[in-house]
Amino acid sequence: MKIDGTHYRSIWRESDGTVKIIDQRWLPHELRIVALTNRRDFASAIRDMWVRGAPLIGATAAYGVAVQMAHDASDAALAETWEVLHATRPTAINLRWALDEMTRVLKPLPPSERAAAAFRRAAEICDEDVEINRRIGLNGLELIRAISERKGGKRVNVLTHCNAGWLATVDWGTATSPIYHALEAGIDVHVFVDETRPRNQGAQLTAWEMNHHGVSHDLIVDNAGGHLMQHGEIDLCIVGTDRTTAQGDVCNKIGTYLKALAAKDNGVPFYVALPSPTIDWTVRDGVKEIPIEERDGGEVTHVQGRMPSGVVGLVQISPDGTPARNPAFDVTPARLVTGLITERGVAEASPEGLARLFPDRATVA
Ligand code: MRU
């Protein structure tokens, strides 16, 4: 997407071969771009959330394998890189998907051919992600258009959680792609952006995206969504996902489940936008089977922001030594999901619904 007239992706390869990312830890205050030059950089970038969002985590891992292949393309290095990068974050399935895909392509090749093939495949994974998200946007656009028509062209109010925007993918975003497409189609659309404690991806990243792309929006605290739904202020919810199971359970940023419950109670459609690599066909019951990342309690007891001095830093908001729990994701059971917006169309959140759209991939129906 364009920032001040320049088109950015969230990760790209320069003509000199360097892989660069937007270091998202500094947004919205600073647009910092950094080069990732070795496997350690890639592992830190994923683990410490310089990049984040399931599709971007996958794309970054793919380039991490490629950079490692340029240093050492042996079988041992390939296997070790899978392990090192896979250990960075446990929940987003795109990470494992990308690492498996790179291994599938590289393993049969002689080491001398692996680096070039790895960079090629990593670039393709990025381009595929962009195209998938563009299609998700077109499919989701029709849902927004239908609501707009039903309301006689009056403003369509969308609630979203976390950042499932272009910063979380390579471009377009998943949940935001229908919104960007609706804007382009001239539909009056407004976004309520959950701040998304503790890391505030909504306040820091989604709000930054909405601002830059001229999308009408309001930032709200995480607990405001239910109230707004009760008062008819939300027409639909669209969120992203880090892993969706074969039966349509959706794992996403902590707090998503509560939004889905509130949506159900108020008859508000609750959609999840996802690229197909986010489907984990090996898992059915998301609550029981998906590993949920537990992050440092410091993310709960401290909040990052820009001080009046202009310095970006952490502020402590709880008493010294307060213990904190920090589960980073939760699972929304399929029964609370109105539909899954994929690159192939909108699926019912059920084994049959997913298998109908992906008959070539569904293994557990
Ligand atoms: O912890 P994060 O910021 O990586 O979590 C991101 C999310 O939960 C997104 O909603 C999800 O990855 C979908 S991104 C298109």
TrEMBL record:
HAMAP family: Salvage_MtnA. It comes from Rhodovulum kholense. The record marks 162 as: Transition state stabilizer. It catalyses: 5-(methylsulfanyl)-alpha-D-ribose 1-phosphate = 5-(methylsulfanyl)-D-ribulose 1-phosphate; 5-deoxy-alpha-D-ribose 1-phosphate = 5-deoxy-D-ribulose 1-phosphate. Keywords: Amino-acid biosynthesis, Isomerase, Methionine biosynthesis. The keyword Amino-acid biosynthesis applies. GO terms for molecular function: S-methyl-5-thioribose-1-phosphate isomerase activity. Its EC number is 5.3.1.23. PANTHER family: METHYLTHIORIBOSE-1-PHOSPHATE ISOMERASE (PTHR43475). The active site is at residue 242. The lineage of its organism: Bacteria, Pseudomonadati, Pseudomonadota, Alphaproteobacteria, Rhodobacterales. One of its GO terms (biological process) is L-methionine salvage from methylthioadenosine. Catalyzes the interconversion of methylthioribose-1-phosphate (MTR-1-P) into methylthioribulose-1-phosphate (MTRu-1-P). Also catalyzes the interconversion of 5-deoxyribose 1-phosphate and 5-deoxyribulose 1-phosphate. Part of a bifunctional DHAP-shunt salvage pathway for SAM by-products. Belongs to the EIF-2B alpha/beta/delta subunits family. MtnA subfamily. SUPFAM superfamilies: NagB/RpiA/CoA transferase-like (SSF100950). This is Methylthioribose-1-phosphate isomerase. Substrate binds at residues 52-54, 89, 201, 252-253. Pathway: Amino-acid biosynthesis; L-methionine biosynthesis via salvage pathway; L-methionine from S-methyl-5-thio-alpha-D-ribose 1-phosphate: step 1/6.
